[in-house]
What we know:
The structure holds two protein chains of two kinds. By secondary structure, chain A is of the alpha/beta class. Chain A is 28% helix and 18% strand. Chain B is built from 21 helices and 23 strands. In chain B, β22, α20 and β23 form a beta-alpha-beta unit. The N terminus and C terminus of chain B are likely disordered. In chain B, the strands form five sheets. Chain B has a seven-stranded mixed beta sheet, sandwiched between helices. A six-stranded mixed beta sheet of chain B has the order 3-4-2-5-6-7, with helices on both faces. A five-stranded mixed beta sheet of chain B has the order 18-20-19-22-23, sandwiched between helices. Chain B starts with a helix and ends in a 22-residue tail after the last helix. Classes of the chains: A alpha/beta, B alpha/beta. Chains A and B meet through β1, β2, α2, α4 and α10 of A and α2, β9, α10, β11 and α12 of B. β12 of chain A pairs antiparallel with β9 of chain B.
Amino acid sequence: xxxxxxxxxxxxxxxxxxxxxxxxxxxxxxxxxxxxxxxxxxxxxxxxxxxxxxxxxxxxxxxxxxxxxxxxxxxxxxxxxxxxxxxxxxxxxxxxxxxxxxxxxxxxxxxxxxxxxxxxxxxxxxxxxxxxxxxxxxxxxxxxxxxxxxxxxxxxxxxxxxxxxxxxxxxxxxxxxxxxxxxxxxxxxxxxxxxxxxxxxxxxxxxxxxxxxxxxxxxxxxxxxxxxxxxxxxxxxxxxxxxxxxxxxxxxxxxxxxxxxxxxxxxxxxxxxxxxxxxxxxxxxxxxxxxxxxxxxxxxxxxxxxxxxxxxxxxxxxxxxxxxxxxxxxxxxxxxxxxxxxxxxxxxxxxxxxxxx
Amino acid sequence: xxxxxxxxxxxxxxxxxxxxxxxxxxxxxxxxxxxxxxxxxxxxxxxxxxxxxxxxxxxxxxxxxxxxxxxxxxxxxxxxxxxxxxxxxxxxxxxxxxxxxxxxxxxxxxxxxxxxxxxxxxxxxxxxxxxxxxxxxxxxxxxxxxxxxxxxxxxxxxxxxxxxxxxxxxxxxxxxxxxxxxxxxxxxxxxxxxxxxxxxxxxxxxxxxxxxxxxxxxxxxxxxxxxxxxxxxxxxxxxxxxxxxxxxxxxxxxxxxxxxxxxxxxxxxxxxxxxxxxxxxxxxxxxxxxxxxxxxxxxxxxxxxxxxxxxxxxxxxxxxxxxxxxxxxxxxxxxxxxxxxxxxxxxxxxxxxxxxxxxxxxxxxxxxxxxxxxxxxxxxxxxxxxxxxxxxxxxxxxxxxxxxxxxxxxxxxxxxxxxxxxxxxxxxxxxxxxxxxxxxxxxxxxxxxxxxxxxxxxxxxxxxxxxxxxxxxxxxxxxxxxxxxxxxxxxxxxxxxxxxxxxxxxxxxxxxxxxxxxxxxxxxxxxxxxxxxxxxxxxxxxxxxxxxxxxxxxxxxxxxxxxxxxxxxxxxxxxxxxxxxxxxxxxxxxxxxxxxxxxxxxxxxxxxxxxxxxxxxxxxxxxxxxxxxxxxxxxxxxxxxxxxxx
Lengths: 357, 646
């Protein structure tokens, strides 16, 4: 097989999207539809964060598209006054791929959940990530099936008792960040629904990243999985668990940086800062694939630790840019020769003519 | 010509050659999957096309890429029917069978009629090869094939001997034996040779020594016919008197791909194909992948669902979304087709039908996806269904399917099949001004009260909704799979609204403008109608000609638009005493017609993975005809001589 280097320029995620002429506000992005999530649902917080962060991108509202699958979170597009498609279960990344490839002038978002993205749509998720299609995927992870009323999901803990697992779930859960990294994602981040600042920062970086960005958002389902992330929210418990990473910064956390992340074997471990040589504290490098993966392994189903922020961000040509470049190359060559010749195509090389019979 | 064989064999005495005229000839090349039979057949076809014959072809090959060498499972064949008048089918039985090995002989001999010509490569009839296919005795032994004209030709050794001086490897030399066979047949049927030699040199331009080997093998076969006593007769088939125009040879898959490209050009919209490879549809993906210069984007998706999903996403963005597949893939796409029905976006879904159910017969033909195409979705999800009737017709059918999709904002199912996909025939290439204008207008302005946009407001004539693509200011809206409120498109669980929306979606499809059914009834007094759809067109037409020649009064009609059916369908059916529907399934169109019109229909079915033969179908139709033939058969025009042995 031969490979061709198309020599594309390095671009940002929004570089081909037209910019807005007016200053936009969060309320400009609110549609006229009544929001119908349950009281206390974490989706409200995410919606509010998204509505307020979208204007800061300074792109035209009509060039923003939200595509979703099926599930509670997938109702998201109805509540934004942008273009949107509430599609079918698991298929949003596939639909968004076709849209992103054919329309470079759009900022394409996918809204999905742990069931939608990781169970029924797992195949589309990994392929969108590996192809690096320019889209931003918001994966709402509440570790439960909400819209079907409380069955376990692919991120539920082993042993979880639900309607479909009265004796406890037997399924080993996915770690969505590890999965995305394994699928060659060029941007992987994580945020908490209630952390407006942290969520906004990760979403903004994701939207401006050229390529497929996956943002896992921990989000509470108060009806079927209430308080599932409380250990990461309550100050006394979260202090020793929440690890916020910033590119170029040493990874320490807790009050006054009481804990640090250090190397151990091929992976990472958490140690009290007092017991660590400062030179051994790991400095976050979002371009380091192995480090990102090791960081993802610090998060486990018991939530003893959870890493937030941008875990990985690297540049790799996007599938949509490359696809368009090939088409443009062919069109340009044809134009130079007088335009694509439909007449010539249909006639081909060997014709014969019958006349006057 | 100068090649080793010319030098080795003495020239035939002048005047010893007999030339006979034939109206039509059927040749079947059969050999091992690796013997290049498809290539040989294709090339003979191109030569016949360039010569101006009418023709129809039927490739038949196993699903395995290289089944074990020399086995029955590995036999690949290519049948070509060419004639000096308009023919309709690839022919029932060959006049000439070329068998490159014992397996090819065993698998195909039963189709060769008594008196037929058999050409075998005797080098391959070794004890080992005979044993492989269960021949206890040598089938070529004297007297064993006395009802045929047998030509025993050591093709492999003649080829390798002729190529010895070229210094190429033994394997490459042996692989050229198919060109020997082509050369021999080209001589027998007085075919021009320059085109084939030019084609070989082009094809192997990067390996001139292989090109030379093939040309020499081709010439050697040709010279062998000319100089060997066994081939005392050559045949000529004059060019056919087809309607005026410029013609080329084309396969169904290529014609279909060209139809899609043409629809893109005529609409001014980019084409986006999302597809997952599947036999026998993959060639459409291959063809379109090479046509990027026409603004065609092809996306080889991770699965069938992603293929249609991406196509639908592109359609939402304003492209002509296309997905191509075969039966099992169509099953996987069902839910996404339902979404396209609900979101009322244009989309072309191509199903190149093959034998089913499940994986079925990937390389064989069938028409058994009709009801899946019609009804294979949850809920009331009507989809227009269009079916080409022949390889060349796949072009027009594809253009028409896109026309419907764009004009009515609906997914459209195009039902081709394996026989159409891989078969070929002459195609009268449309003149530039014959191509339809498929221009569409995207919505650009609000259409509701107070500057609002109603994505589900409808065109009063077509009931199509506006196509408002992302990026259009002021028209931002949300669509999806949940039931929509009429007009606004907002989520609605209202029962009256649902009832209305289900009925309006149905009415939109029912109201699609399609041409009336045309009936072919040469005598004008037939009381039996033979009605078909898809690739049975050729066999039905050929069988009808036979029946008419035998004095039966038979009318023929062919349905291109299966949904909605032409408005005059019921009236046509009711005007005949008997309606017979031959299909390559267990009676799916017959079921549809009887359910819709409560008219009794006689169903003739075949599910053998192969098309109906003309004689076979004529016999089966005759057995169903209630009225006796007319005493005095009507005068026949040239149209009527089809399939009647020349």
